[in-house]
Design a protein that fits this description.
Layout: H1 2-21, E1 37-42, H2 48-63, E2 67-72, H3 77-89, E3 94-98, H4 106-114, E4 119-122, E5 134-138, H5 140-157, E6 162-168, H6 174-187, E7 194-201, H7 206-219, E8 223-228, H8 234-243, E9 257-262, H9 265-273, E10 278-281, H10 284-299, E11 307-310, E12 313-316, H11 320-323
Parallel strand pairs: 1-2, 1-3, 3-4, 4-5, 5-11, 6-7, 6-8, 8-9, 9-10
Antiparallel strand pairs: 10-12
Helix pairs in contact: 2-10, 3-4, 5-6, 7-8
């Protein structure tokens, strides 16, 4: 009797052990290593670009079987600071953040530094100082320079000196500064082909951009080239051009040479329809992959450069078919 009872207990114990060996314990990934958790904090999802970036980062983390905590600050740096502190309280392994600007993110970075949690900034680097972070950012100046250089070449083909307008972004945003500088660099030395007659401040506001473009077109109806620092503002420009009867396809009389920056869905549709000459594309997929890889390298204790640049590319009518798969705006629907 004692022998039969002992045998039964051993059988039950072996069954439990066998069952346990066939599955991963909680909070582990299939490799058996502890599953990482990353906090993703975006300042806003106001534009198609930020939505595409948010989704690309989450997809990249999911591909690597990493848990995600999400937070959107609705353009409020104080709210974002509290969200980062919440991530820290919940003991995340790393943080990916899009700040509102280079200065307001410093307290959040310092909080992560104090908790020894690596932090990567997506698309917007922090101002220089004692706060330690890694940033992945589009090469705004160079991508813009190449885009505007293409527009200048189109201007030269018209055989007349073109008057130009540039729509500036929020110059408190380092990305907007880079795009302004890239525009100026492309114009420099080409003053015989292009004369800049209007610089419209938008502060990343559709309403301000549209009012500024309307005023500029009324002040100088001969404007024949427009560059916007973000494709996000294209609907405002199109509305103003239509109001001035200046919205015509490439090759038609009265066409205004038009270029932008970002590579969003509106820009892609305008390229397809023949109204947009070119846009500089931020490679969202490259930036998302590099942000996640940089964070994993930091978690592993590896050395990572403080700034990883996205070289981006210029897409236009001549290379659209070739580069469409890499243009994130070709893979999402335009905002309604």
């Amino acid at each position: 009797m004692f022998t039969r009872t002992l045998f039964t207990l051993l059988l039950v114990a072996c069954t439990i052990l066998a069952t346990g060996c066939g599955s991963s314990p909680p909070n582990t990934n299939p490799t058996g290593k502890p599953q990482l958790t990353v906090g993703v904090a975006f300042e806003t999802l106001q534009t198609e670009y930020w939505v595409a970036g948010f989704e690309a980062i989450k997809a990249e983390l999911a591909k690597r079987n990493i848990n995600v905590l999400e937070a959107i600050a609705d353009s409020d740096p104080n709210r974002q600071l509290q969200q980062v502190k919440n991530f820290i309280t919940r003991k995340v392994d790393g943080i990916i953040m899009v700040p509102k600007d280079a200065q307001s993110c410093i307290p959040a970075i310092r909080a992560a530094n104090a908790a020894k949690i690596p932090i990567v900034l997506f698309n917007r680097p922090a101002a220089a100082g004692d706060a330690v972070s890694v940033a992945v950012q589009a090469d705004n100046q160079e991508i813009t320079r190449q885009t505007v250089a293409f527009l200048v070449e189109q201007a030269k083909k018209t055989g007349k000196k073109q008057k130009a307008m540039v729509i500036l972004g929020d110059l408190g945003d380092i990305n907007a500064i880079g795009r302004r500088d890239g525009f100026n660099a492309a114009i420099m030395g080409n003053e015989d082909a292009v004369e800049v007659v209007a610089q419209v401040p938008s502060e990343w506001s559709l309403e301000k951009a549209q009012a500024g473009v309307v005023n500029a077109l009324q002040a100088d109806p001969e404007i024949g080239l427009i560059f916007t620092s973000s494709d996000f503002l294209l609907p405002a420009i199109v509305s103003a051009l239509k109001g001035a009867d200046k919205y015509h396809k490439i090759g038609e009389p009265g066409h205004v040479i038009l270029g932008g920056f970002d590579g969003d869905a509106t820009a892609y549709q305008m390229l397809r329809d023949g109204y947009l000459d070119a846009t500089g594309v931020q490679d969202v997929y490259f930036e998302a992959e590099q942000s996640v890889q940089a964070l994993l390298d930091l978690i592993a204790g590896k050395t990572v450069p403080p700034l990883i640049k996205d070289p981006g590319f210029v897409i236009h009518q001549g290379n659209m078919a070739e580069l469409k798969p890499r243009m994130w705006g070709a893979n999402v629907k335009p905002a309604q």
